[in-house]
């Protein structure tokens, strides 16, 4: 994985860009041949990987076709086979695929930053094992998943609470990358490859399989919907909402108990939401010193928590969809200006949901920044 110790890989990536297409076929042969290697998993491993602009695995690369996609599907099947044999849930496979896409474009590369090689760009010098071991994709997958055979540094199963993390966050905990936000951005492509490989990403399993003295957690089931466009499968849309909403001053004490002041329109929205949606964990006024343009300090916005990262929790996703849909359906009567939920934003002016990019303030891949753990509602 790239870090500040070595910029050489970036130069290598640029220099090799022109020969990448020619090299792809050779790398594919090396990769497929390595599928036959079944050396037993042994030593510990320390991920040190990430990619520089222009390297394999860079976010925004065209979707792979032909031989490269066939190679990616083959390695995806092998990674999932390791996970299945371990008894790991489908989300462990998904995280591994997202990671390998960033690190190597899901190829068994013979080169990388410093001494990094293989699917996950693991480093012999950091304790992952020998080059020969790491170039065995079965070994590399076992190393990424971790467990009692690889106590230092930790693999996925060695990280307490990883099932409740965002997928990209869990990958980062293993990889310790200098570019932590890139993993989450490959989720859609990882899901496409998994579908092509016939992998069940909703498979139940023990999140700490292969680890001794694992924390309590029990069997989990992947609870994420199959949509790949930032979510929104259960969200309603429609025509723009017209109306005239005169400006209001902050004259009402925030009914959610923050101690701040909100507009009468915001207070009325809170009352209607509570009447129609039942008990809500909600907060409206907030200073939001990190974002002076926010509607919260103006008393014109509320955040409604759903209790968990909805990417990990079907009940949280369903509750958030219910809240967001009600806010949209009643916008013409309550004066809702826009709603942000599950990586998307709806506005009364547009009338449709589009992907939410964080507005230059928040990380859209973060549970809070991407609004996966709460619904944001702003009124006129």
Automatic annotation (TrEMBL):
<feature type="transmembrane region" description="Helical">
    <location>
        <begin position="20"/>
        <end position="41"/>
    </location>
</feature>
<keyword id="KW-1133">Transmembrane helix</keyword>
<dbReference type="InterPro" id="IPR058593">
    <property type="entry name" value="ARB_07466-like_C"/>
</dbReference>
<dbReference type="Pfam" id="PF26571">
    <property type="entry name" value="VldE"/>
</dbReference>
<feature type="domain" description="ARB-07466-like C-terminal">
    <location>
        <begin position="259"/>
        <end position="363"/>
    </location>
</feature>
<keyword id="KW-0812">Transmembrane</keyword>
<keyword id="KW-0472">Membrane</keyword>
<protein>
    <recommendedName>
        <fullName>ARB-07466-like C-terminal domain-containing protein</fullName>
    </recommendedName>
</protein>
<feature type="region of interest" description="Disordered">
    <location>
        <begin position="208"/>
        <end position="230"/>
    </location>
</feature>
């Amino acid at each position: 994985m790239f870090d500040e110790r070595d910029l050489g890989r970036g130069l290598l990536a640029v220099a090799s860009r022109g020969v990448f297409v020619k090299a792809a076929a050779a790398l594919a042969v090396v990769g497929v041949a390595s599928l036959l290697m079944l050396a037993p998993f042994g030593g510990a491993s320390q991920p040190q990987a990430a990619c520089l602009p222009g390297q394999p695995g860079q976010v925004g690369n065209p979707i792979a076709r032909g031989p490269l996609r066939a190679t990616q599907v083959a390695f995806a099947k092998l990674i999932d086979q390791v996970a299945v044999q371990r008894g790991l849930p489908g989300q462990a496979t998904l995280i591994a695929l997202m990671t390998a896409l960033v690190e190597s474009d899901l190829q068994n590369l013979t080169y990388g930053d410093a001494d990094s090689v293989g699917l996950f760009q693991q480093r012999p010098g950091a304790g992952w094992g020998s080059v020969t071991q790491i170039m065995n994709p079965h070994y590399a997958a076992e190393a990424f998943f971790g467990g009692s055979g690889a106590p230092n540094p930790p693999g996925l199963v060695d990280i307490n609470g990883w099932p409740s993390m965002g997928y990209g966050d869990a990958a980062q905990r293993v990889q310790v990358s200098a570019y932590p936000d890139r993993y989450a951005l490959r989720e859609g492509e990882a899901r496409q490859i998994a579908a092509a490989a016939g992998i069940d990403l909703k498979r139940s399993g023990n999140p700490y399989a292969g680890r001794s003295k694992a924390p309590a957690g029990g069997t989990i089931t992947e609870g994420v919907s199959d949509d790949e466009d930032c979510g929104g499968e259960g969200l309603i849309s429609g025509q723009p909402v017209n109306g005239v909403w005169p400006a209001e001053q902050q004259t009402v004490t925030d009914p959610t108990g923050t101690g701040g002041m909100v507009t009468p329109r915001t207070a009325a929205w809170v009352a209607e939401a509570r009447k129609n949606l039942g008990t809500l964990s909600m907060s409206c006024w907030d200073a939001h010193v990190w974002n002076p343009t926010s509607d919260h300090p103006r008393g014109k916005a509320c955040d409604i928590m759903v209790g968990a990262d909805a990417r990990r929790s079907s009940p949280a996703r369903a509750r958030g969809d219910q809240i967001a849909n009600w806010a949209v359906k009643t916008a013409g009567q309550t004066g809702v200006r826009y709603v942000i939920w599950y990586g998307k934003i709806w506005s009364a002016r547009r009338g449709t949901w589009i992907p939410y990019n964080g507005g230059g303030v928040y990380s859209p891949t973060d549970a809070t920044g991407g609004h996966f753990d709460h619904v944001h509602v702003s009124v006129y």
